[in-house]
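hey so i finally got around to running the thing on that chain from the lab meeting. sorry it took forever, my laptop kept dying and i had to restart like 3 times. anyway pasting the input first so we r on the same page abt which one it is
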Amino acid sequence: MAVTGTASMTINEMREFASFSAGEQRYIKRSLDIGLGRQDAFKLWARNEGESAAIRSQYVAYQELKTLRETIPHEATINDTEAFIGKLVRLAAFDLSQERITCFSAFRFLYERLLGADVRPWLPSAFCAAAALPQLRPECRKELLQSLSEAAATAPGWSDREPAFYPEYIEAAEAA
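ok and heres what got predicted. didnt touch it at all, straight out
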């Protein structure tokens, strides 16, 4: 029975990923390659100098991931929160400023995979803080903030089940 439940969850994750725009899907896969050290992102994803520069910046920004994974607060004390949320908002602001992630669902999908299930309670606040920063264009801020549902913002609890589906580069699909 547990295998059926896991398969069902994986299919749901695949469906959710399929609901994102092609640009969001591409950015998520590239981000996972960079953040999880799966592939050489320059070889797979850089189609021009602009993308090479963006990938280089992302490698630098994602150096925080290891520290973030190790410092996710399990007890919400102010001191733990301050150190963690500041770094998480800075990283989220980097990703949102690329304007490839256009909604909370895609942001949550990416960050659950980059940081693990324990980060879920922190994602709505980090997303709101990063999406409201003046570095983002006003239209972008509006679209991002409106994408966070009341249910996501006020969830009484979060699943501790780790994500099962990690999308990867597929040559034929990416060449198009």
